[in-house]
Amino acid sequence: MSACFKSRYAKLTVIQVYAPTNDADDESKEEFYEQLQWELETTPRHDVLIVMGDLNAKIVEWRVMKDGRWWDDMDLEEWTRMERLATFCGKNDLVIGGSLFKYGDIHKITWTSVNARDRNQIDHIISNGRYRGSPMDTQAMRGADANSDNHMVMGKVRLKLCSTKRERRERTIFDIKKLRDPCVKEVFRLEVSNRFQVLGTDDADDIEEMWGRFKGVYNERAKNVLGEKRRVKSDWISRKTYKKIEERWGLKAKIRCTRSAHMKERAAAAYAVKDKEVKASARADKWRWLNDLAEEAETAARNNCSGDLSQLNVEEVLERWREHFEEVLNVQRPHIPLPVIDQAPGVITSIDTGDISIAEIKRAIHRRKTGKSPGIVGISAELLKCSEKDAVKQLHLLINAIWKEQCATEDWKKSLIVKVQKKGDLAQCDNYRSISLLSVPSKILCRVLIDRLKSGVDEMIRRE
Fold this sequence. Notes:
Structural class: alpha+beta
Shape: elongated
């Protein structure tokens, strides 16, 4: 198995291998090295190459000369495997990471037999000689609790990888739950108040400038004090399984620390029993988690889908939704002449059309529900209620300027469209209904206008 990683200067190619064991015949071993040789030949020469895995061949340091060749206490089979690996590395200019760094045997041994008597270094991390300086460290990590006779081998490679470019979402969702803490709430209120005092209120005359200052203050203070809300992934492993994992970890530590062979055998037997319990419990947790996901999917779509939106790329899906919502939401106005208000029958003339007062804005903020979407701007009702005094003052100036100019800001004209399934085929756009999420400050003005219209209509109904 091979994988290629892009970097700023040279690509990194990693080849994961598993060599045949001692029981395999010579043909299987020769075939393994032929396949590995073909994989190396197809890899570009300028790439940083890492070959790692269980090669079932150990390397030795203390050797003696016999009959003109270097030998040690290994048998012929072990020597043959090591010679194959050494010949392969010499032919392709490869360097074995375990031979570059000086560690004790405790950090070199990668395999321990069942009886805990035989130990060898058969797992290796090999790199090409061209980038000999890239590997920074290679050692065995015995702490991994995996119930395996092989220890994990960790290697550090000096390489500057290319950063993955992720599209930044336009709207930011802040961690509003922190406002439940009175201390955090007071800090946020002071930050907003101090920032507005520094900026002043008499400098901005343009509506867009006033709105940009208002939005910038709240977004900056909320980001500094509250931070962005992070999505927490659900953990399918239960607490019961975690407890068993901790118990298994304690048994593994007991095996490492015990010197008596008899006590090690007892601890190893207890570890094997506990490992079976952990795997059975984790398997049950995973099946339970998968069943929950299946039930959610069945609840969301109980009918068979004739199409599959996942077969389309993101651009095609967005273009398809754009065409659908343009057709649904952009309705042509009827060409009917509007009557003159003064001459129209039944016109309500008792509606207040004067400047919007501070009391109206304050009442509209109080009536905003919490826990709702902040829209594309990111300013939620919780932020306005937390700094009510400054929010009312700044919105009073902004909304009155919009009321006089009869022109809203560009952000107030935008909405975030969320699609909700109704019924039928999921691949058909007509089987969804849309919800437009507006910015909360624009809803303050809408609430004031609705209250004024309602008061005028109620007065006319009472007269009738």
